[in-house]
Structure formats: C-alpha cells, structure tokens
Specification:
- The chain has helices spanning 3-8, 25-34, and strands spanning 13-17, 36-41, 48-54, 64-65, 70-81, 84-93, 98-105.
- The chain is mainly beta and 108 residues long.
- The protein has a single domain, classed as Polyomavirus Enhancer Binding Protein 2, Chain: A.
- The longest helix has 10 residues, at 25-34.
- It is globular.
- The two termini are 13 Å apart.
Length: 108
C-alpha cells in the first residue's frame, strides 16, 4: 500500500476544511450542498488537500449549526489518493473549521 495512504489510515490526524475564496461555515455548507468538500490533512509535508465526494448516507450534519458557526459536521466520502481507493472520514468543528480525520482503504 502507498506510504501516504497507510500513514493517514492509522489513527486520527488534524484536518481542516479547505475552502476558497474564504474559509467560512457558510462556504462549507455550500460545498456540502454541492456534494463535494475539500479536506486538508495538516500533518503531511505541505499538507494534503483531498477532494471528497460526499456519501450522504454516511455523513451526518444533524449537529451542525452553520448559521451560528456551532457544532460539528461529520463528513464521509470516497476518493482515490495515489491510485488507492479510500474513504475519508472527518469531523469538522464549525467554529474553527478544523478537526480530526482519517482514511480507510477500500478493498477491491
């Protein structure tokens, strides 16, 4: 398995919602509504920015108050990293737009 995928699959890692042009809870909500969110793993050289196609069944936004920038967004989605299919799981605090996350390799 790829070294980066293996490292990000072990334990929890600091992540942030990677948003442009501005990093706001409203911008994160817009990304979620489009079904595609960028999550940046902070503890890699220069950071690893991943585009995640949301899995609406596995994600959970019931504790997310985007308007008041409170609560947490549970983001789950699939992507390929270095030719390895993975599932990204991240919990993002809406006050800071930072949190913890990890990858799970998908067999097949």
């Amino acid at each position: 398995m790829n070294e980066l995928v293996q490292r990000l699959s072990q334990g929890e890692h600091p992540v942030e919602a990677s948003l442009r042009p501005e990093k706001t809870a409203a911008a994160l909500k817009e990304s979620i509504e489009r079904g595609y969110v960028h999550i940046k793993f902070m503890n890699t050289r220069g950071g690893t920015d991943l585009g995640v196609r949301l899995d609406p069944e596995a994600s959970n936004f019931s504790k997310a108050d985007f308007e008041n920038k409170k609560g947490q967004a549970h983001i789950v989605g699939n992507l390929s990293l270095n030719y390895v299919k993975v599932r990204c799981i991240a919990d993002i605090d809406l006050a800071t737009l930072e949190g913890k996350g990890h990858l799970e390799p998908i067999e097949g």
